[in-house]
Amino acid sequence: MSMKLKKGDKVFILSGKDKRKTGTVSRVIMKSGKVVVDGVNIVKKTVKGDKSNPRGGMVEKPMPLNISNVQVVCISCGKSSKLGYKLLKNGKKERICKKCGQAIKEQK
Predict the structure, then answer these.
(1) Which of 15, 28, 91, 19 is nearest to 64 (CA)?
(2) Which 3 state secondary structure label does DSSP give 21?
(3) CATH number of the domain that 44 lies in?
(4) DSSP-derived pairing of the beta strands 34-37 and 70-72
């Protein structure tokens, strides 16, 4: 499965409990087509005690979102938009914003 989103991209949430929020992609899960976004879709999980956390208890953790529920935010126009590709003369592909046509660079 091909993913247009990359780690470090700023994204806008389209649906779910965190609708209309923005965050950065911290992890891309290629196999299931999901992304983990910092500060979005936080759930509380109960964990058993171990060496690093001897008492255990409740831990807040960001959970994955389906890739169809997020949209990249363009740096140049500042709006969320679909991604497209443009072939460069050297044979490489470049991600572009469908609204303004500008290239989307690595946002790290």
Answers:
(1) 28
(2) coil
(3) 2.30.30.30
(4) unpaired
Domain housing 16: 10-48+57-97
pTM of the predicted structure, to 2 decimals: 0.83
- CB distance 76 to 70 below 8 Å: no
Instruction: Per-residue pLDDT tens, the chain, 108 aa: give them.
Output: 468 899 999 999 999 999 999 999 999 999 999 999 999 999 999 999 888 888 888 989 999 999 999 999 998 898 999 999 999 999 999 999 999 999 987 655
In a domain, 65, yes or no: yes
108 is a domain residue: no
Residue 19 near residue 78 (C-beta atoms within 8 A)? no
The answer to the question of residue 16 being in a domain is: yes
Distance CA 36, CA 68 (A): 13
Whose tokens are 């831990």? That residue is: 59
